[in-house]
Amino acid sequence: MRQIVPSQWKKKIRHFMLDLDARIDSTLFSSGKGARELYERFSTFMDRFYVGRWKRWVFIEPLSEAATIGLGGLILMLALAIPAFRETSDDDWLKKSDLAVTFLDRYGNPIGSRGIKHNDSIPLEDFPDNLIKATLATEDRRFYEHFGIDIAGTARALVTNAQAGGVRQGGSSITQQLAKNLFLNNERTIERKVKEAFLAIWLETRLTKNEILKLYLDRAYMGGGTFGVDGAAHFYFNKSARDVNLAESAMLAGLFKAPTKYAPHINLPAARARANVVLDNLVDAGFMTEGQVFGARRNPAIAVDRRDENSPNYYLDWAFDEMRRLVDTFPKSYVERVFVVRTAIDMNVQRAAEGAVENQLRQFGRDYHATQAATVVADLDGGVRAMVGGRDYGASQFNRAVDAMRQPGSSFKPYVYTTALLNGFKPNSIVVDGPVCIGNWCPQNYGHSYSGAVTLTVAITRSINVIPVKLSIALGGKTANPAKAGRAKIVEVARRFGIKAPLPDTPSLPIGSDEVSVLEHAVAYATFPNKGKSVTPHAVLEVRTGTGDLVWRFDRDGKKPLQAIPASVAADMAGMMSHVVSEGTARRAALDGIPTAGKTGTTNAYRDAWFVGYTGNFTCAVWYGNDDYSPTNRMTGGSLPAQTWHDIMLAAHQGVEIKEIAGIGAGTKLPAPAASAAMAASGASRLPDIKPGPPPILTKRGADILVRVEKMLDEAGKAAGKATPGDPVKPGKPVSSSAIAFPDSFAAAAPGEAAATAAPRKN
């Protein structure tokens, strides 16, 4: 092997390696020497600038630290600016908000509008001088001087708020407010404020001051569903913004801060007080003298009375959001921004829904400690016929039907039972209602009692909590963690129904601890009467341009129904859920002669009360509770929610051909009032089919008053008998009128007696 490489080659290789090693050593030595000489030269040169003693600590060190911190600050600002500038990635960012939509109901009648119509907007030079001055004096006095952020104004606001211990002044400039209107939302977070600041600077580099002011005047929300000062002038004063006087300009300028709080059609005294503050600002800023504003103080603006107008604002806000998403799907080459949209809303049903919610809250809200409600009524194709997002749109524009996420309680259980039926269970399958634990969590039934062996139909009718939890375990089969695997199947089925809420995996998911929205929950239930087909909630039926050209139509271009579950399973579930209405926790929801099914829901501490139900024509969900998650006074889904559902659906079915539900049939007639009275008089203890009225609320004081009235009537009857002893005695046992009128009422309404006879059942 040693002879393979010739000896002369070995010698050459050895010399080459020695030469390479020498060159490397020489290079490293020369480089080190050169670097050392270079450093010495640099040090000698820099010694000329050396500053010692006090000058070093007064000048040099602070400047060095400032440079270091400044460089770090620039890097941090760049990192913070990147998310803000992503908001401007759309080349059409200026036109994206330039959408003007006129909405029609399902029959073609105008119901309102949303958006800004720029092609009809007023040029800035046509706005009255007093309106522009009032806006600048109140919102941003140094608007034409700063670079997008008013440093002095922000500092002043911080000092004022710190002294007041709360928010008294806003530090945002007009440019910052415009950035928020164009790109951001109203959330109160540091991230949003940082984005707002960067976007304000970005806007200042893209637009002139006058363009920014014009956009601000056109796009700011001004209350009453109006955007821009011209729309507000028409809404509040029935005139163009060109024609408003100083008093009206002051009232309009006062709306920028809090349009819902200072809207004159809601609170005229507050609007006038705010306008007076704007007049003070005009004087303080030097834009006007006290003499010039004196007339406006003495003769404040008079707003048009809009209290009788009932525009479906929650519905319009949601429909406008849907329309904006829909327009984003149009080709980029499509430049039309003005549309006429026919929606699925039925104003008769909408008014009935609003009236039912208001009536129930007015009558019983105080007793139940409930302040808010939301409801959605939808066709079986997902078209929303009515939406109530809260009690008063003027007081709060937060749409509780769409944006609020609340625990559904037992109204979530139909998804669990559907999953069970899909995995071999039947409506008459027997499951034992007994103790069960998952880890250290052990669900309890209301009343802390168990019913033993029951069918699934009985379990859903009586809203037993343990059964859905046991089903979730059984659905998991022989996996390592059957409860977790079973819950995964339940979530997957809920997704098929159309539930898009997060639904995190928790042991209590089968009994409705995960939050959902009223809208999703209502339309998901349409899968049952739709023979297992799930649909998508929508408001838009038809989109046309301002000139009448058809652009989009739901039945042609919308999302088609999907077969979520077999029709046989949907029919079985409808049969099971019909018992909830006929003999279970939702008797108040029963409709005369109309097949009805649904499920009540009540959450821990009575924070949320639901009833979600459907007929062969519509589906509807009703929620009651409080915005601050405070508990109600023992409100269950079978009380106000079921009664409200009944009132709404009764109106919705007027003049409508009643359709059957597979698994239920055509429904049954409720007994006539005379028959009900006869049953009551005969002492019947169970009246499941009596048409329910409002929930009985009778205080102890009211009961005492009725008892005293009863005694007075008895005493009056006895006194009358003693006064006329010669009168013939009528055959039969004498019965006082109070004995006929009141005993059943006391049994139903007196809380103490009801609790003594039978424990109430939580839904």
UniProtKB/TrEMBL annotation:
UniProt keywords (A-Z) are: Carboxypeptidase, Cell shape, Cell wall biogenesis/degradation, Glycosyltransferase, Hydrolase, Membrane, Multifunctional enzyme, Peptidoglycan synthesis, Protease, Transferase, Transmembrane, Transmembrane helix
InterPro entries per record: Beta-lactam/transpept-like, Glyco_trans_51, Glycosyltr_51/Transpeptidase, Lysozyme-like_dom_sf, PBP_transglycosylase, PCN-bd_Tpept
Q: Which reaction does this enzyme catalyse, per its entry?
A: Preferential cleavage: (Ac)2-L-Lys-D-Ala-|-D-Ala. Also transpeptidation of peptidyl-alanyl moieties that are N-acyl substituents of D-alanine; [GlcNAc-(1->4)-Mur2Ac(oyl-L-Ala-gamma-D-Glu-L-Lys-D-Ala-D-Ala)](n)-di-trans,octa-cis-undecaprenyl diphosphate + beta-D-GlcNAc-(1->4)-Mur2Ac(oyl-L-Ala-gamma-D-Glu-L-Lys-D-Ala-D-Ala)-di-trans,octa-cis-undecaprenyl diphosphate = [GlcNAc-(1->4)-Mur2Ac(oyl-L-Ala-gamma-D-Glu-L-Lys-D-Ala-D-Ala)](n+1)-di-trans,octa-cis-undecaprenyl diphosphate + di-trans,octa-cis-undecaprenyl diphosphate + H(+)
Where are its TM segments located? 63-85
Q: Quick one: which pathway?
A: Cell wall biogenesis; peptidoglycan biosynthesis
The chain positions of domain Glycosyl transferase family read 117-282
The biological processes this protein is annotated with in GO are: cell wall organization; peptidoglycan biosynthetic process; proteolysis; regulation of cell shape
**Which molecular function terms from Gene Ontology are attached?**
penicillin binding; peptidoglycan glycosyltransferase activity; serine-type D-Ala-D-Ala carboxypeptidase activity
The similarity comment for this entry is: In the N-terminal section; belongs to the glycosyltransferase 51 family. In the C-terminal section; belongs to the transpeptidase family.
* Xref: PANTHER family: BINDING PROTEIN TRANSPEPTIDASE, PUTATIVE-RELATED (PTHR32282), PEPTIDOGLYCAN GLYCOSYLTRANSFERASE (PTHR32282:SF33)
Question: How is this protein named in the record?
Answer: PBP1A family penicillin-binding protein
Q: Which organism is it from?
A: Bradyrhizobium sediminis
